[in-house]
């Protein structure tokens, strides 16, 4: 997804007319029945008066606001809730990025209403994304969890692995969160050894992507195979295979994800795409 041109703005914008209104129920996004995004009109509904609106910023000249509803909230007539991830292909690259930002801001505000140190209700800071405690001064910013992704290459072959949590038949590049005190490079080497028992070298940065499920920043790399035999950990990774020229590929992530673009940029010559 492209980076949105939205920028932090004063919380007062949340009380002004908005061109883009993002309402979430868990990881579901409120949309009209025709799957278009709601506008300012959605705030006229009865349930909206109790909603805590958050200023997200401006995008393409329009104010953006977001809110998180209770998990049992019902949509108003003419609207429905759809999983945010499923809406990405319909929203398009840039609107998906803005929606992801709005989701993270809404979740951050929902989970930081009270100070984690003294329990005092927090206050939104006007000039940045910050919830500050008026009693002890503790500041809370939107959480961002860096995670690496790596596609291992061995000659013309690539390694694809199946995570236990993937949808049936899905394979992808390896991925894992950065631990405290680690560099990205150290994370790549550790995760590769832990998940599939291999050694790698010649790491090359590919690109990054904000991934709001719930607050990841994915940083993708390629790496060259440097030894070892595949030995899956059996917990996170349940299978891993080399795919080379002419091989039939398994189901891989869609192109709108960094995993999908990473794999497609390094497909073996003559590899046969997966077909449902």
UniProtKB/TrEMBL annotation:
Keyword Nucleotidyltransferase carried by entry: no
Cofactor: Mg(2+)
Highest taxon of the lineage: Bacteria
Keyword NAD appears in the UniProt entry: yes
Name of the protein in its database record: NAD(+) diphosphatase
A single MF term (Gene Ontology): metal ion binding
Assigned EC number: 3.6.1.22
Sequence ranges assigned to domain Nudix hydrolase in this UniProt record: 142-265
Keywords annotated in UniProt: Hydrolase, Magnesium, Metal-binding, NAD
Gene3D superfamilies xrefs: 3.90.79.20, Nucleoside Triphosphate Pyrophosphohydrolase
């Amino acid at each position: 997804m492209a980076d949105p041109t939205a920028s932090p703005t004063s919380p007062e914008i949340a009380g002004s007319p908005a061109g883009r209104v993002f309402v979430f129920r868990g990881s579901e996004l409120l949309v009209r029945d025709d799957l278009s995004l709601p506008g300012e009109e959605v705030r006229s509904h009865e349930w909206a008066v109790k909603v805590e609106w958050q200023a997200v910023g401006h995008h393409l000249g329009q104010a953006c606001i977001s809110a998180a509803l209770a998990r049992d909230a019902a949509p108003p007539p003419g609207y429905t809730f759809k999983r945010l991830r499923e809406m990405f292909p319909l929203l398009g690259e840039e609107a998906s990025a803005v929606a992801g930002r709005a989701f993270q801001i809404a979740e951050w505000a929902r989970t930081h209403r009270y100070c984690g140190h003294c329990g005092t209700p927090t206050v939104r800071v006007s000039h940045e994304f910050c919830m500050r405690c008026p009693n002890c001064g503790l500041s809370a910013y939107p959480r961002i969890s860096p995670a690496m992704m790596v596609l291992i290459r061995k000659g013309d072959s690539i390694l694809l692995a199946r995570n236990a949590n993937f949808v049936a038949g899905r394979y992808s590049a390896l991925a894992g969160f950065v631990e405290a005190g680690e560099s990205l490079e150290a994370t790549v080497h550790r995760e590769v050894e832990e998940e599939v028992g291999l050694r790698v070298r010649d790491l090359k940065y590919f690109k990054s992507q904000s991934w709001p499920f719930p607050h990841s920043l994915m940083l993708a790399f390629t790496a060259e195979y440097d030894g070892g035999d595949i030995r899956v950990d059996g917990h996170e990774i349940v299978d891993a295979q080399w795919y080379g020229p002419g091989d039939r590929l398994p189901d891989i992530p869609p192109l709108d994800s960094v995993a999908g673009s990473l794999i497609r940029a390094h497909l073996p010559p003559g590899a046969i795409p997966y077909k449902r």
